[in-house]
Amino acid sequence: MNLEGKRILVTGSSRGIGHAIAMECAARGATLVVHGPEVDDELTQSFAKVSALSPSSIQVTAELSDPTAIAALFDTVHEQLGGIDALVNNAACQNEYGVLDLPQEDWDRIMAVNLRAPFLCAQHAGRHWAAEAKGGSIVNISSVHAQQPRRNFTHYSTSKGGLEQLTRCLALELGEHQIRANSIVVGAIASELTPKERCDAFATAIPMGRVGWPEEIAKTAAFLCSDDSYYMTGASITVDGGLTLGFCASRKDL
Known about the structure:
The protein is α/β, with parallel strands linked by helices. It has 8 helices and 7 strands.
């Protein structure tokens, strides 16, 4: 996979899966837009590592729950890089509430960041790509919980289910502009969002016997950003070690 000359925006790339995707793409020759909600140690360190591989990369901040901030982010990217060639909608948030206790403000924030923001980012990118008649690639980072409900994560699971349908709708409507949209259905990944005890519990339900690593998602994302996947659109690629084959939604420890 050669990403030389590609300009790629990865939302939420200051840590975890997003950082791994940025590093993988940078190692393959891409210029990255490294994004975080604010300038902090995580974003600074992530950008330093990415720019060591790809010196032309830039750092941006935007609170993705704010549509105005998203518009400003794309203005900045176009001013500094002249646009992007691929968009990876990775940024997401989650917290744990039973459905009867879930506050409306938590529902609203998760829908804003996990679903509305990917739509708005895709819309901004898609408008430029359609106007320039050059095509582009949208990669949405989804979750096995888009199909498999998870206790105490109704809002998160619902947002990812919506993201899967958004991916298909983008593929359907934007295909005529040679704009592709695909999703990666992510299983249990060792990251800051998944404590060790939860990783251990998930491992018992995974045929491969372990949780995944962010770098294993990153390789699939790089492929979908590359021209090697040029005829793929509307696809959902599951990267979960077989979790969805043996996952039992009734288990209370997951």
